[in-house]
Specification:
The chain is of the alpha+beta class. The protein folds into two domains: 209 residues, Ribosomal Protein S5, domain 2; 177 residues, Alpha-Beta Plaits (2-Layer Sandwich), CATH 3.30.70.890. The protein is built from twelve helices and 13 strands. The strands form three sheets. A six-stranded mixed beta sheet has the order 5-4-6-3-1-13, sandwiched between helices. A hairpin with a 4-residue loop joins strand 7 and strand 8. The protein is globular. The structure holds alpha-D-galactopyranose. Alpha-D-galactopyranose binds next to helix 5.
């Protein structure tokens, strides 16, 4: 939650504070951070009222902010990654527009204003080490970091679900992506002791401890970017809604594999495959959470491979590059320390996530990158992440 100070602070915090001082001539009053996330399993289930099992990762969007002088009430935000600044009116009157990265900020400002929480004039510097377009929720982290800064600047404290919902709404209305809740909620609620089993229907969240020092979460970025706003995501959502309607349930969470396969109910084979993915993925996610808790990593891994197959063949959101990476991981197999792998996030590019025995991590990373280059001509980048805590303010003392 935003009231909990983050300690240790993300790597980028000191740099953000220094850039802010250089640019605006005074130290920032607040430095906030929001993590990206990787989803272990439970893909395209959140907007179907289903189950997801993500963890917040040690990659953050950091924002340094402070009050601004002048008569105009506005937020001047500088993105260090893009070396670009934007000016946003703080009365919530800005519509979505160019540059598009600023839409995440505009959306959050607008949502705060709608609640009567108009912020005072602000300067801000934004830094991020969440890969952009990698399926690791760089946009949700930017939304949640901005909301955390505005909480600090207005003195408001939003309830975590409410905050995640506000950020999700900003993404719908200002970025045009009809996303579910998983990304924003994980960035808000992340826990350093484990993954979050989120029931997106009942809104129940349980931390599934994941602290085995012998197993690492290895993330490998295909460096092929996806674009969820290009219509694929919205199409999948509406296919799922069609399937639920045909099955007579309010969401696919309430459907079973037998209902989906029952002859005649869903005549369109494409819609049937979409529904099959969702109902089987929900079962896999619940099973995986149980195995993770019991430290049965090979069983979690087997479910991850199965999830990938379902996303590739039934939901059709994988890509050649993601399939190649998962194939390499599977070929390495348990003998080389790989317990399981799958694409993670919305799809159409981005990253795979794998569970790897610690002592094999370096060789696995080398092999993934080398074989991927040989098979696709592209360059992959690999990193390891432990679970991390959700968004918050960074105590000034922690940065000294
Ligand atoms: C994107 C969306 C999430 C979720 C995933 C797929 O990351 O933002 O809400 O639907 O895709 O699981």
């Amino acid at each position: 939650m935003s009231s909990r100070p983050l300690s240790p602070p993300p790597r980028l915090a000191k740099t953000a504070a220094r850039l802010f001082s250089d640019r605006f001539g005074a130290a920032p009053r607040w430095v906030v951070a929001a993590p990206g996330r990787v989803n272990l399993i439970g893909e395209h289930t959140d907007y179907n009222g289903g189950y997801v099992l993500p963890l917040a990762i040690d990659r953050h969007v950091v924002v340094a902010g402070g009050p601004a002088a002048g008569s105009e009430i506005r937020l001047q935000a500088y993105s260090a990654a893009l070396d670009r600044s934007v000016d946003i009116r703080l009365d919530g009157s800005d519509a979505p527009g160019e540059p598009s990265w600023a839409n995440y900020l505009r959306g959050i400002v607008s949502a705060f204003c709608q609640r009567g929480l108009a912020p005072p004039s602000l300067n801000a510097v934004i830094l991020s080490d969440v890969p952009i377009g990698g399926g690791l929720s760089s946009s949700a982290a930017l939304e949640v970091a901005t909301a955390t800064l505005l909480e600090a600047a207005t003195g408001a404290r939003l309830d975590p679900w409410d905050k995640a919902r506000l950020c999700q709404r900003a993404e719908h209305d200002f970025a045009g992506v009809p996303c579910g809740m998983m990304d924003q909620l994980t960035s808000v609620l992340g826990d350093e002791t484990g993954a979050l089993l989120i029931d997106c229907g009942s809104q129940d969240v349980r931390v599934v401890p994941f602290g085995d020092p012998d197993v690492e979460v290895v993330i490998c970025n295909s460096n092929v970017k996806h674009a969820l706003a290009d219509g694929f995501y919205a199409r999948r959502r509406s296919e799922c809604a069609d399937a639920a309607r045909l099955l007579g349930v309010s969401s696919l969470r309430d459907a079973t594999p037998d209902m989906v396969e029952a002859s005649g109910k869903i005549a369109d084979p494409t819609v049937r495959r979409r529904a099959r993915h969702v109902v089987t993925e929900n079962l896999r996610t619940l099973a995986a959470a149980g195995h993770l808790e019991a430290c049965e990593f090979a069983k979690v891994g087997a479910l991850m491979y199965e999830s990938h197959r379902s996303l590739r063949d039934d939901f059709e959101v994988s890509s050649t590059e993601l399939d190649v990476l998962v194939d390499i991981a599977r070929e390495l197999g348990e003998a080389n320390g790989v317990l399981g792998a799958r694409m993670t996030g919305g799809g159409f590019g981005g990253c795979i996530v794998s569970l790897v025995r610690s002592k094999h991590v370096e060789t696995v990373a080398t092999r993934l990158e080398r074989d991927y280059a040989a098979r696709t001509g592209n360059t992959a980048t690999t990193f390891v992440s432990r679970p991390t805590r959700g968004a918050g303010l960074i105590e000034p003392a922690a940065m000294a």
